[in-house]
Amino acid sequence: MLFSNLLIGFPRFWVSLGEMPVTLLIMSRLGAMLFILVALPLAFVLAQRPGGFGGGGGFRAAPPAEAGHDREWGVDPDFAEDHFTFVRLQHNGDKDGGFTDYPKADRNFTRRLQELTSMEVNPVYKNFAINDPELFQYPFAFMSDMREVTFSQAEEEALRTYLTNGGFIMADDQWGDSAWEYVSDAMKGIFPDKEPVELDINHRIFSAVFNLKKLGYLPQIPSHDAAKQWMEMGLDNHYEPSRNGDEEEERNTPRFQAWFDDNGRMMMLVCHNNDIADGWEEESYQPWFFEKYSEKLCFPLGINIVFYALTN
């Protein structure tokens, strides 16, 4: 797959949270910073990295507030204030506190943005509690595995303010009807008068940079373990097998549910029945997994979502 060219930039967008001034960096088609996708196959870029293909794993110990200070690139001083930082939000919806696929997913996705685009990418990736005021310095946040999520009143208020003032959240790795009910109910506490809109493959987010519309169907990515299981069984399935008694029919249909503000701007996207970040985390698991999921779906879809979120 070749990476096409694109041109966008970063102006500033100021909002206020009570008496505390906060800043969101919102991308638009005009501005000073270029976002040009390099025309190189992702497999070629990976081949230049030491280590080759090998296994990976999630994060189980108490995570640091930020990581990546050991990386080989830094932020250009000219863009000390204007760069993209990958932010993950902590929550109570799973046993890992929102850290499924961490830290490799965060590390690998930020590396891809740095290597394959000229967007200024912070090598340090961060995580915050939902009601941490520092969140309001960053326009994009990621949440993972909200299968049993609930929000406190303080968290609801923080998310409502963040999302209605220009912030965007991508949520990933929820499977089955029970998980969707938890997410839907939690969102009702934030936006009681708003209903999610289910996206189809023709929505612009699927062709913002990479034209995934040509697939003709919504992408679905299982975990690498599930993908290996289906491959060994000779089945062309792409969903996560049920482990808690729910029906597999609940899991085999990808759904992209979006919440929009009163002006039609997408504020939050829930990638349900999908594990996009596992394709980031496990890009080096096996060549076949990389070629089938990471290269063709996971990184292109992630870049599409970031670009769409920050330019609309």
Task: Please state the second-level CATH architecture.
Answer: 3-Layer(aba) Sandwich
CATH class: Alpha Beta
Shape: globular
How much helicity do the residues have?
25-40%
**Residue-averaged pLDDT:** 82
Number of strands: 10
Largest sheet: 5 strands, mixed
Summed up, the helix count is: 7
Order of helices and strands: EEHEEHEEHEHEHEEHH
From the alpha carbons, calculate the radius of gyration and give it in angstroms. Answer: 18 Å
Which homologous superfamily in CATH is the superfamily?
Domain of unknown function DUF4159
> In total, how many domains does the architecture comprise?
1
Strand order of the largest sheet: 6-7-10-9-8
Question: Which class do the helix and strand fractions yield?
Answer: alpha/beta
Model regions low in confidence, pLDDT < 50 over at least 5 residues: 1-40, 49-60
CATH topology label: Rossmann fold
Give the N-to-C terminal Cα separation.
Answer: 26 Å
Beta-strand proportion: 15-25%
Oligomeric state of the chains in view: single chain
Task: Describe the overall structure.
The protein is globular, with a radius of gyration of 18 Å. The relative contact order is 0.16. The chain has helices at residues 42-47, 104-116, 153-164, 176-190, 224-232, 276-281, 287-311; strands spanning 12-17, 20-25, 66-67, 87-89, 125-128, 140-144, 168-174, 197-199, 255-260, 266-272. The protein is α/β, with parallel strands linked by helices. It starts with 11 loop residues before the first strand and ends with a helix. Helix 3 (153-164) packs across helix 4.
